[in-house]
Write a structure and sequence with these properties.
There is one protein chain. The chain is α/β, with parallel strands linked by helices and about 220 residues long. The protein has a single domain (about 5-200), classed as Rossmann fold (3-Layer(aba) Sandwich), CATH 3.40.50. It has six helices and nine strands. The chain has a seven-stranded mixed sheet, sandwiched between helices. The longest helix is centred in the C-terminal third of the chain and has 24 residues, at about 165-190.
Length: about 220
């Protein structure tokens, strides 16, 4: 399979970036991370990238008067690296419609809930307040409507009686680190594509092998 080029966008520590990097290093993803771009210079993941030899760039969102002008410069920086895929890994900026349309079908995000439940922020506290018994994470194509793009893959886990928002967030994050690389594998090998506003599977989707991701029975 041809090696594909990934540009990863981060705003924080980049823990999902690290999971993707490890999947590439282990040979699970036929890809190369050609750039990591942050929207401010305080993103802790930048230091990790420098330690691991990953090219980085910063496009400070506060330097721009509006979302559209920021997105134009961000897109120019992305295009400079000629990516096959643009991966949002904790990138905490809402993107303009024009930006999303530019990369539609190649722009992917992970969200810490079982979409369409709990889009936006504070997902874990909202899940606990709603009393749901299952929670998790969703990998989806990015479309102009926030957290509403067609779903690629989901991972679920039970909400425990002793969970608070912090404990639940930690368990979901660990799940994300397994889910995101696997979902990217489906994209890189052409198993699924964005087609007329929906996820089209070119082969039958089966539950992943990793424990806790789309489990087929209660544990």
């Amino acid at each position: 399979m041809t090696e594909q080029r990934l540009v990863v966008l981060i705003s924080g520590r980049g823990s999902n970036l690290r999971a993707i990097y490890q999947a590439v290093a282990d040979g699970r993803l036929p890809a190369r991370i050609v750039a990591v771009i942050a929207n401010h210079d305080k993103a802790a993941g930048l230091t990790w990238c420098q330690e691991h030899g990953l090219p980085t760039a910063i496009v400070p969102h506060r330097n721009f008067p509006d979302r559209e002008s920021f997105d134009r410069v961000l897109a120019a920086e992305i295009d400079r690296h000629r990516p096959d895929w643009i991966i949002l890994a904790g990138f905490l900026r809402q993107l303009s419609n024009g930006f999303v349309e530019r990369y539609l079908g190649r722009l992917v995000n992970i969200h810490p809930s079982l979409l369409p439940a709990f889009p936006g922020l504070h997902t874990h506290a909202r899940a606990l307040a709603a009393g749901v018994r299952w929670h998790g994470a969703t990998v989806h194509f990015v479309t102009p409507e926030l957290d509403a793009g067609p779903i690629i893959s989901q991972g679920i886990l039970p909400v425990l009686a002793e969970d608070n928002a912090e404990a639940l967030a930690a368990r979901v994050l660990a799940l994300e680190h397994r889910l995101y690389p696997q979902a990217l594998g489906y994209l890189l090998d052409g198993s699924c594509v964005l087609d007329n506003g929906r996820t089209l599977w070119r082969r039958g989707y089966s539950s992943p092998e990793w424990l806790g991701i789309n489990p087929e029975r209660l544990i």
